Protein: Prolyl 4-hydroxylase alpha subunit-like protein
Amino acid sequence: MAVRLRTGLVAALLLCIFIFSSSATAASAAAADDSVCTANDTREECSAAPLDNESSSDDDEDDDEFLATCVDEHDDCKMWSDSGECDANPNYMLTHCRRSCKVCGIIDSNDFGKPQQIPRSNDFEAVKEIVRQSTEYMKRINEDEKYEAVRNKCLNQHPDCSLWALGSGCDDNPSYMKQHCAPACQSCDHILRLDEKCRPGPDAKNAIENGGLDVLFQTIIDGAKESGYDPMVWSRPTKMPDDDGYSKPCEEDVTNPCNVPDGPWVVTLENFISEKEVDTLKGWGSKLGYQRSQAGDQIIDVRTSSQAWCTARCYDDPVVAELRTRIHDLTQIPEANSEYLQLLQYGEGQYYKQHNDFIEKHVDQLHGPRLLTFFIYFNEVEEGGGTRFPELNNLTIQPKQGRVLIWPSVLDEDVNAQDERTDHEALAVERGEKYAANAWLHLRDFQTGFNMGCDS
Structure:
């Protein structure tokens, strides 16, 4: 009887611990939980301290007039803004999505990053004061033309920024806090200095110059042929008879096969990556954990695949290092110009709708725009999963183990300008799974700026 009683007490105690632990975990994970308030929470218990100074009726009228003009005219403005469209499509976005693009001012803390969580604890008033001060600070920043270039970067990127900023939090971990919690730390000056530091100087070295894209692809194709990668040209610019000394008839010229459509370069290679390398990279994807893919920095329905970034130990893996070297040897683009490999997983029904790999804001950054996409297929897909180019008569390349698909994101005549013809989409996987990797090669050194904390 005593044994059963003790057993029952132990079980009850364990159950209580489990419930308490589960509740604590849920509370810390959910912004809307009763244990925390958000900066603009309307609940009575979350309004003990005002976030803004009392305003006069005249100020209220000014605010009403301001709010009437500072609006998003489309339901998807916030999603587009988070995906980088304010920079990529300014003519539309800065007119029709004024609030999401932050071109008309600061209203509350939601306008400069993640809504801030305020714990209902001894820190309640202190955190609210941080948010109030942040709001006033960001209003001043928004009115100062000096910060125009970094207003979309001077953000609280975590809901706990204001909590972490208490005391000496901003100075205890400055490399993270001053960059990722700039409003809470009032450190937009740091963002501004970093932005200036992350712009290319007069000595910045480009991998190629204007007019060099054709030579780059001809080099890739010739090297691939010598290495036995069976290159196939699916699209290429019209070739002049004496184009760079390549004057063979089309039947003999692998860089200019007969009957190839006129357009941007689109090339495939076969057997570029071995089965061992495929297994290694898929293994790293599993270890790192595939997460829902993003378009820009926002999870949206335009893209439903999963991804993992091959950084740190994955990047330094000898098998991965050998693959990186092979990409460099073939393209003659320095390894430092490459982003970390993006490992991809598509399940049944998953896709990535039409998009372009060119990102406008990269042009003025240290690393410059993406020159090439070097897309590596890990496996054949039972049905679906092809890569389609809608602007190239729906040219579609099917996945195959070891196959590489290469295309440019820029124009030959201007390597800082987007080639809209290379818009593409990952068609939905209809049956089976699709595994692949992206290597994006930039005009200039990517790794140095990335390690400095530059925007990528």
